[in-house]
Design brief:
9-stranded parallel sheet, about 240 residues, 29 strands, 2 domains
Protein backbone atom coordinates (compact mmCIF):
# COMPACT_ATOMS: atom_id res chain seq x y z
CA UNK A 1 0.00 0.00 0.00
CA UNK A 2 1.40 3.35 -1.00
CA UNK A 3 1.97 5.97 1.65
CA UNK A 4 2.45 9.70 1.43
CA UNK A 5 5.03 11.41 3.55
CA UNK A 6 5.27 14.98 4.78
CA UNK A 7 8.19 17.04 5.93
CA UNK A 8 7.31 18.51 9.34
CA UNK A 9 9.15 20.47 12.00
CA UNK A 10 10.24 18.53 15.08
CA UNK A 11 10.66 20.87 18.04
CA UNK A 12 12.51 18.36 20.21
CA UNK A 13 15.14 17.76 17.54
CA UNK A 14 15.06 21.33 16.28
CA UNK A 15 14.94 20.18 12.68
CA UNK A 16 12.64 19.11 9.87
CA UNK A 17 11.95 15.36 9.65
CA UNK A 18 10.13 13.04 7.27
CA UNK A 19 6.88 11.74 8.72
CA UNK A 20 3.71 9.96 7.76
CA UNK A 21 0.97 12.01 6.16
CA UNK A 22 -0.99 11.67 9.40
CA UNK A 23 1.75 12.99 11.62
CA UNK A 24 1.51 16.53 13.00
CA UNK A 25 4.48 18.81 13.34
CA UNK A 26 4.79 21.78 15.66
CA UNK A 27 1.95 23.98 14.46
CA UNK A 28 2.48 27.04 16.66
CA UNK A 29 4.18 29.05 13.94
CA UNK A 30 1.65 27.91 11.37
CA UNK A 31 -1.25 28.87 13.66
CA UNK A 32 0.23 32.30 14.30
CA UNK A 33 0.70 32.90 10.59
CA UNK A 34 -2.81 31.65 9.87
CA UNK A 35 -4.33 33.93 12.54
CA UNK A 36 -2.45 36.94 11.20
CA UNK A 37 -3.63 36.17 7.69
CA UNK A 38 -7.25 35.88 8.78
CA UNK A 39 -7.06 39.16 10.70
CA UNK A 40 -5.61 40.92 7.66
CA UNK A 41 -8.31 39.50 5.41
CA UNK A 42 -11.08 40.57 7.75
CA UNK A 43 -9.60 44.05 7.92
CA UNK A 44 -9.57 44.30 4.14
CA UNK A 45 -13.14 43.07 3.87
CA UNK A 46 -14.50 45.40 6.54
CA UNK A 47 -12.78 48.53 5.18
CA UNK A 48 -11.93 51.60 7.24
CA UNK A 49 -13.85 52.40 10.43
CA UNK A 50 -16.90 54.53 9.78
CA UNK A 51 -17.15 57.97 11.41
CA UNK A 52 -20.22 58.95 13.44
CA UNK A 53 -20.78 61.97 11.24
CA UNK A 54 -20.55 63.22 7.67
CA UNK A 55 -17.49 65.53 7.38
CA UNK A 56 -19.10 67.67 4.65
CA UNK A 57 -22.85 68.02 4.19
CA UNK A 58 -23.26 69.39 0.68
CA UNK A 59 -25.88 71.94 -0.37
CA UNK A 60 -29.19 70.17 -0.97
CA UNK A 61 -28.22 67.24 1.27
CA UNK A 62 -29.38 66.55 4.83
CA UNK A 63 -28.19 64.37 7.70
CA UNK A 64 -29.81 63.51 11.01
CA UNK A 65 -28.77 62.13 14.38
CA UNK A 66 -25.02 62.39 13.89
CA UNK A 67 -22.46 62.80 16.70
CA UNK A 68 -19.25 64.79 17.00
CA UNK A 69 -17.47 63.57 20.12
CA UNK A 70 -13.75 64.32 19.96
CA UNK A 71 -11.78 67.54 19.63
CA UNK A 72 -10.60 66.43 16.18
CA UNK A 73 -14.13 66.01 14.81
CA UNK A 74 -15.04 68.72 12.29
CA UNK A 75 -18.14 69.02 10.13
CA UNK A 76 -19.02 71.63 7.51
CA UNK A 77 -22.72 72.04 6.75
CA UNK A 78 -23.79 73.60 3.46
CA UNK A 79 -27.07 71.68 3.47
CA UNK A 80 -29.05 70.71 6.59
CA UNK A 81 -28.05 68.90 9.78
CA UNK A 82 -30.78 67.78 12.18
CA UNK A 83 -30.49 66.53 15.76
CA UNK A 84 -26.70 66.67 15.87
CA UNK A 85 -25.03 65.84 19.19
CA UNK A 86 -21.86 67.89 19.65
CA UNK A 87 -19.88 66.52 22.59
CA UNK A 88 -16.54 67.72 21.21
CA UNK A 89 -15.16 69.15 18.01
CA UNK A 90 -16.79 71.66 15.72
CA UNK A 91 -19.88 71.92 13.53
CA UNK A 92 -19.43 74.78 11.08
CA UNK A 93 -22.67 75.91 9.42
CA UNK A 94 -21.74 77.66 6.21
CA UNK A 95 -23.49 80.22 3.97
CA UNK A 96 -26.96 78.78 3.23
CA UNK A 97 -26.56 75.93 5.72
CA UNK A 98 -28.90 74.95 8.57
CA UNK A 99 -28.35 73.27 11.92
CA UNK A 100 -31.59 72.40 13.71
CA UNK A 101 -32.18 70.86 17.15
CA UNK A 102 -28.47 70.49 17.94
CA UNK A 103 -27.45 69.39 21.44
CA UNK A 104 -24.13 71.06 22.25
CA UNK A 105 -22.50 69.81 25.45
CA UNK A 106 -18.77 70.09 24.89
CA UNK A 107 -17.89 71.40 21.43
CA UNK A 108 -18.70 74.45 19.33
CA UNK A 109 -21.55 75.19 16.96
CA UNK A 110 -20.28 77.89 14.58
CA UNK A 111 -22.84 79.75 12.47
CA UNK A 112 -21.19 81.58 9.59
CA UNK A 113 -22.68 84.62 7.84
CA UNK A 114 -25.98 83.61 6.16
CA UNK A 115 -25.97 80.32 8.05
CA UNK A 116 -28.80 79.48 10.47
CA UNK A 117 -29.18 77.67 13.78
CA UNK A 118 -32.65 76.78 15.10
CA UNK A 119 -33.53 75.32 18.52
CA UNK A 120 -29.96 74.64 19.64
CA UNK A 121 -29.58 73.62 23.30
CA UNK A 122 -26.24 74.54 24.88
CA UNK A 123 -25.10 73.07 28.19
CA UNK A 124 -21.97 72.07 30.07
CA UNK A 125 -19.01 73.37 28.09
CA UNK A 126 -21.06 73.83 24.94
CA UNK A 127 -20.66 77.01 22.92
CA UNK A 128 -22.37 78.64 19.95
CA UNK A 129 -20.69 81.38 17.89
CA UNK A 130 -23.20 83.25 15.75
CA UNK A 131 -22.04 85.29 12.78
CA UNK A 132 -25.26 84.47 10.93
CA UNK A 133 -28.62 83.92 12.63
CA UNK A 134 -29.63 81.84 15.66
CA UNK A 135 -33.28 81.34 16.63
CA UNK A 136 -34.68 79.93 19.88
CA UNK A 137 -31.35 79.02 21.46
CA UNK A 138 -31.49 77.66 25.02
CA UNK A 139 -28.37 78.40 27.08
CA UNK A 140 -27.99 76.27 30.21
CA UNK A 141 -25.44 76.12 33.02
CA UNK A 142 -21.83 76.54 31.92
CA UNK A 143 -22.68 77.23 28.27
CA UNK A 144 -22.04 80.40 26.27
CA UNK A 145 -23.67 82.00 23.25
CA UNK A 146 -21.55 84.57 21.39
CA UNK A 147 -23.67 86.72 19.10
CA UNK A 148 -21.89 88.69 16.38
CA UNK A 149 -24.78 88.43 13.95
CA UNK A 150 -28.40 88.05 15.09
CA UNK A 151 -29.97 86.03 17.91
CA UNK A 152 -33.75 85.81 18.25
CA UNK A 153 -35.65 84.60 21.33
CA UNK A 154 -32.73 83.20 23.29
CA UNK A 155 -33.52 81.70 26.70
CA UNK A 156 -30.70 82.13 29.21
CA UNK A 157 -31.01 79.87 32.25
CA UNK A 158 -29.02 79.56 35.49
CA UNK A 159 -25.29 79.60 34.82
CA UNK A 160 -25.66 80.37 31.12
CA UNK A 161 -24.30 83.49 29.42
CA UNK A 162 -25.12 85.30 26.18
CA UNK A 163 -22.52 87.79 24.92
CA UNK A 164 -24.05 90.21 22.43
CA UNK A 165 -21.76 92.03 20.00
CA UNK A 166 -24.36 92.14 17.22
CA UNK A 167 -28.14 92.08 17.78
CA UNK A 168 -30.20 90.11 20.27
CA UNK A 169 -33.98 90.34 20.13
CA UNK A 170 -36.54 88.90 22.53
CA UNK A 171 -34.14 87.22 24.97
CA UNK A 172 -35.44 85.90 28.29
CA UNK A 173 -33.11 85.70 31.29
CA UNK A 174 -34.08 83.25 34.04
CA UNK A 175 -32.65 82.43 37.47
CA UNK A 176 -29.15 83.90 37.45
CA UNK A 177 -28.60 83.75 33.72
CA UNK A 178 -26.46 86.55 32.27
CA UNK A 179 -26.64 88.68 29.12
CA UNK A 180 -23.63 90.90 28.49
CA UNK A 181 -24.28 93.51 25.83
CA UNK A 182 -21.71 95.25 23.64
CA UNK A 183 -24.06 95.58 20.67
CA UNK A 184 -27.82 96.08 20.42
CA UNK A 185 -30.60 94.36 22.35
CA UNK A 186 -34.35 94.56 21.84
CA UNK A 187 -37.06 93.43 24.24
CA UNK A 188 -34.93 91.57 26.74
CA UNK A 189 -36.93 90.28 29.72
CA UNK A 190 -35.42 89.47 33.12
CA UNK A 191 -37.83 87.39 35.17
CA UNK A 192 -38.15 87.93 38.92
CA UNK A 193 -35.34 86.00 40.57
CA UNK A 194 -33.63 86.14 37.21
CA UNK A 195 -30.13 87.08 36.23
CA UNK A 196 -27.92 90.04 35.42
CA UNK A 197 -28.13 92.26 32.41
CA UNK A 198 -24.92 94.22 31.75
CA UNK A 199 -24.70 97.15 29.35
CA UNK A 200 -21.38 98.56 28.27
CA UNK A 201 -21.48 102.36 28.09
CA UNK A 202 -21.34 102.52 24.27
CA UNK A 203 -24.32 100.17 23.89
CA UNK A 204 -27.60 101.23 22.34
CA UNK A 205 -30.56 99.35 23.78
CA UNK A 206 -33.74 99.74 21.76
CA UNK A 207 -37.41 99.35 22.61
CA UNK A 208 -37.03 98.21 26.18
CA UNK A 209 -40.45 98.12 27.93
CA UNK A 210 -40.77 100.64 30.74
CA UNK A 211 -41.21 99.67 34.39
CA UNK A 212 -40.54 101.37 37.76
CA UNK A 213 -36.95 102.44 38.28
CA UNK A 214 -36.54 100.27 41.39
CA UNK A 215 -34.60 97.23 40.30
CA UNK A 216 -34.18 93.88 42.05
CA UNK A 217 -30.83 93.03 43.61
CA UNK A 218 -30.36 90.32 40.98
CA UNK A 219 -30.03 93.06 38.37
CA UNK A 220 -26.55 93.86 39.63
CA UNK A 221 -24.04 96.38 38.33
CA UNK A 222 -20.67 95.13 37.14
CA UNK A 223 -17.31 96.78 37.71
CA UNK A 224 -16.46 98.87 34.65
CA UNK A 225 -19.99 98.60 33.25
CA UNK A 226 -22.99 100.91 33.45
CA UNK A 227 -25.81 100.17 35.87
CA UNK A 228 -28.63 98.17 34.37
CA UNK A 229 -31.04 100.40 32.45
CA UNK A 230 -34.04 101.56 34.55
CA UNK A 231 -36.32 100.95 31.55
CA UNK A 232 -35.76 97.20 31.80
CA UNK A 233 -38.98 95.34 32.55
CA UNK A 234 -38.86 92.92 35.48
CA UNK A 235 -41.82 90.54 35.58
CA UNK A 236 -43.31 89.20 38.84
Amino acid sequence: MNKNFNIVWNTARNMYVVASEFAQGDSQIKNQARAAGIATLLGLLSGPAMADYTPTVAAGESVSGETLNTTDDYQEVYGSAFNTTIEGGWQNVMDGGLSQDAQVTGGTLQIQENGTSVNAVLSGKGQQDVDGRAEHTTINSGARNYVYGTAVDSVINAGGTEHVFGLSSGATINNKGVQEVYGIVKNTTVNQGGGRWYLEHTTTAEKQPVSPATLPSTAAAHSGWNQIMPSLKVLP
